Amino acid sequence: MDQFNKIDPSQISTPVLILQGALDPIAPSERQNKLFTRLKTNDKSWVVISGGDHAAFLEAPREHFIQSFAAFIDSFNQ
In total, how many domains does the chain have? Predict the structure, then answer.
C-alpha cells in the first residue's frame, strides 16, 4: 500500500485503465474514484467487474475482464 499511496495521479499522462472488482475489499469504489478523478490523462477508463474480487479477475468474471481490457486497447487502434 505504501508504494500505491506514493503515486501522484496528477502526474500520470499516459492512458489508464482501472479495472475494479465489485467485491474488492482492498480497493473500494471510493478509493478508485479518488484515483480516477485525479488522473491527468484524458485517455482513461474505469470498469467495475461484476463478481470480481481484488485479484480474482481471471476466475468467474474472466470474460468481462478480457472484453474490458481488449476494448480499452482497441480504442487506441482506431
Answer: 1
